C-alpha cells in the first residue's frame, strides 16, 4: 500500500469549483489519504483556482504564493483549475515553487501524483470538471443543505465569458447518477438542495437533445425530508413552461430561481450574444410573476460592457428600479483574454464602470429595503445555520446560502430545532431580525 499523504485543499471561485474539490476529497479518502484543514500540517497542498475575472485571478495567485511560503522539503504544491486552464504557460514559468499544474479536466491525476511524484509538469488537456469518477464515492453531509451538480462546461456563446474555454462544452451527468446522489443525501438528512451547473436549463440537451429538468426536479422534490429545491444559474433562453409548471405546482418546495440576465438593453444583449432581448426578458418575467407571484427571483448584471452608452446603462438602472428582482449580484465588465468582447476597441474606463456599479447597487438596495419591509411581521420557516455570540443566523426559503440576506435570532431559538417558525421583526443592511414562535 503506497504511503498515505496528508493533503490540504484550498478552493477558490464558484460552486462548481467547490463541487470539484468535494469530489477530490472523497476520492483521496477512498484512496487512503487524509484531508487536513491546516496547510502547514500537510504533505501536499492543492490550490484549486478561479480565473473568471481579474479580481478572482489575483485572489488565486495570492493563495498560491501563500501556499508556496509553507513549502518545506518534500512538501508538494499542486495548482489546478481555471487559472491553469487559461494562463498555464505563463504561471508555469512565473511560479517555480509549484510542482504540478493541472487544468480543469485533469483533477483525477492528483491521487496518483501523491503516491508517485513526477518531474514538474503542466497538463491542460480536455477542459471540463471533476464529476463522476468510476468508483462510487459517498458524499459527506454537513448540515441540512447541499448542492446538486447537473453538468459541467457550457455551450453558450456569451461574448464576455471565458467559461466555455476553461471548462469545455456542456457535459451532462446522467439522471441516474444525479438521482442516486440526491437520494443518498436526503437519506443523510439533507432538506435543501441548490441545483447548480453553468446553465442548469441546458442539462441533458447534449445527451438527449431535450432537457428533462422538470421531471428531475419533481423527483428530487418528492424525496423524503426534502423541503426546498433552489434552481441556480438558469440561462433565460433555457427556461421552459415545463419548469414554470414545477414552480407553480409547488411554490413552497420550489421557492427560488436564479436566472442571470446580464443586461436588459436589447443592443447590449445582442452584443453580449445572450440570444434574447428586452421584450423577451420582460415577457418571461411577466409570465413567471403571473403564475408564481411569490417566487424569489435572483439575477446577475454586468455593467460597463464595451460600448455601453449612458442611455443603455440608464435602461438597466430603470429596470432595476422597477423592482422585478428580489436578489441581485452585479459585476463590472472584465476584459477576459480569448473572449470576443475583449478584442473590442470601445472598452470603457474603469472609473465609469465602477460608478455604474455603485449606481446600480444603490438603486437595488432601495428596492431590497422596500421588499424587506413588506415581509416584516410575517411568519416564515427559518433554517438555523451558525451561531454568532448570543444569536444564531439562518435563512428563509427566500434566501440562498452565502449570497443573500440572513436572518438573526436569539440563540435560544436553536432549542426549537433546525427548521423553526419565526416572525420577521426588523431589517437593516441585508439582515433580518426575527423572533421564534
Ligand atoms: S451561459 Fe454563463 S457560463 Fe455559459 S457562456 Fe454564458 S455567461 Fe458563460
Write the layout of secondary structure elements.
Blueprint: E1 6-11, H1 15-30, E2 34-35, E3 44-49, H2 54-69, E4 76-81, H3 82-94, E5 100-102, H4 110-115, E6 121-123, E7 145-149, E8 151-152, H5 163-167, E9 171-172, H6 175-187, E10 192-196, H7 205-208, H8 213-221, E11 228-231, H9 241-249, E12 256-258, H10 266-271, H11 278-291, E13 296-303, H12 310-321, E14 327-332, H13 350-375, E15 379-388, E16 391-396, E17 406-410, E18 419-428, E19 431-436
Parallel strand pairs: 1-2, 1-3, 3-4, 4-5, 5-6, 7-10, 10-11, 11-12, 12-13, 13-14, 17-19
Antiparallel strand pairs: 8-9, 15-16, 15-18, 16-17, 18-19
Helix pairs in contact: 8-9, 12-13
This protein binds iron/sulfur cluster.
Radius of gyration: 22 Å
Share of helical residues: 25-40%
Task: List the ligand species.
Answer: iron/sulfur cluster
Helix and strand content put the structural class at: alpha/beta
CATH class bucket of the largest domain:
Alpha Beta
Low-confidence stretches: none
The count of helical stretches stands at: 13
What's the average pLDDT?
Answer: 94
Apparent shape:
globular
Biggest beta sheet summary: 6 strands, parallel
The order of strands across the largest sheet is 2-1-3-4-5-6
> In the residues, how many domains can be counted?
3
Output the CATH homologous superfamily of the largest domain. Answer: tm_1862 like domain
CATH topology of the largest domain: pyruvate-formate lyase- activating enzyme
CATH architecture of the largest domain: Alpha-Beta Horseshoe
Beta-strand fraction estimate: 15-25%
Q: CA-to-CA gap between the ends?
A: 56 Å
The number of E-state strands comes to: 19
Amino acid at each position: 500500500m503506497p504511503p498515505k499523504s496528508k493533503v490540504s485543499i484550498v478552493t477558490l471561485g464558484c460552486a462548481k469549483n467547490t463541487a470539484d474539490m468535494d469530489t477530490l476529497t472523497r476520492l483521496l479518502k477512498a484512496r487512503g489519504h487524509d484531508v487536513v484543514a491546516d496547510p502547514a500540517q500537510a504533505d501536499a497542498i492543492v490550490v484549486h483556482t478561479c480565473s473568471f475575472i481579474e479580481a478572482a485571478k489575483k485572489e488565486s495567485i495570492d493563495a498560491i504564493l501563500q501556499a508556496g511560503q509553507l513549502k518545506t522539503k518534500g512538501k508538494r504544491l499542486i495548482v489546478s483549475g481555471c487559472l491553469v486552464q487559461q494562463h498555464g504557460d505563463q504561471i508555469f514559468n512565473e511560479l517555480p515553487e509549484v510542482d504540478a499544474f493541472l487544468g480543469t479536466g485533469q483533477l483525477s491525476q492528483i491521487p496518483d501524483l501523491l503516491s508517485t511524484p513526477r518531474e514538474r509538469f503542466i497538463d491542460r488537456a480536455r477542459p471540463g470538471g471533476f464529476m463522476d469518477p468510476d468508483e462510487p464515492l459517498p458524499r459527506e453531509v454537513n448540515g441540512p443543505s447541499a448542492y446538486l451538480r447537473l453538468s459541467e462546461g457550457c455551450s453558450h456563446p456569451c461574448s464576455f465569458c471565458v467559461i466555455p474555454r476553461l471548462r469545455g462544452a456542456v457535459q451532462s451527468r446522467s439522471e441516474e447518477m444525479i438521482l442516486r446522489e440526491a437520494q443518498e443525501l436526503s437519506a443523510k438528512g439533507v432538506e435543501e438542495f441548490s441545483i447548480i451547473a453553468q446553465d442548469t436549463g441546458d442539462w441533458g440537451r447534449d445527451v438527449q437533445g431535450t432537457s428533462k429538468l422538470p421531471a428531475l426536479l419533481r423527483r428530487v422534490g418528492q424525496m423524503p425530508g426534502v423541503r426546498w429545491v433552489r434552481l441556480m444559474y438558469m440561462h433565460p433562453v433555457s427556461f421552459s413552461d415545463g419548469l414554470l409548471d414545477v414552480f407553480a405546482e409547488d411554490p413552497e418546495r420550489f421557492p427560488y430561481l436564479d436566472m442571470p440576465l446580464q443586461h436588459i438593453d436589447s443592443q447590449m444583449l445582442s452584443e453580449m450574444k445572450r440570444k434574447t432581448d428586452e421584450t423577451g426578458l420582460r415577457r418571461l418575467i411577466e409570465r413567471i410573476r403571473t403564475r408564481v407571484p411569490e417566487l424569489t427571483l435572483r439575477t446577475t448584471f454586468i455593467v460597463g460592457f464595451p460600448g455601453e452608452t449612458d442611455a443603455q446603462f440608464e435602461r438597466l438602472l430603470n429596470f432595476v428600479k422597477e423592482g422585478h428582482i428580489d436578489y441581485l449580484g452585479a459585476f463590472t465588465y472584465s476584459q477576459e483574454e480569448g473572449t470576443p468582447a475583449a478584442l473590442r476597441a470601445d472598452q470603457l474606463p474603469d472609473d465609469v464602470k465602477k460608478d455604474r456599479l455603485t449606481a446600480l447597487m444603490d438603486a437595488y438596495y432601495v428596492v431590497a429595503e422596500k421588499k424587506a419591509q413588506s415581509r416584516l411581521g410575517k411568519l416564515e420557516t427559518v433554517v438555523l445555520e451558525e451561531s454568532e455570540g448570543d444569536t444564531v443566523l439562518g435563512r428563509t426559503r427566500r434566501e440562498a446560502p452565502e449570497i443573500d440576506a440572513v436572518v438573526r435570532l436569539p440563540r435560544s431559538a436553536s432549542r426549537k430545532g433546525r427548521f423553526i417558525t419565526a416572525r420577521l421583526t426588523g431589517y437593516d443592511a441585508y439582515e433580518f431580525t426575527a423572533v421564534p414562535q
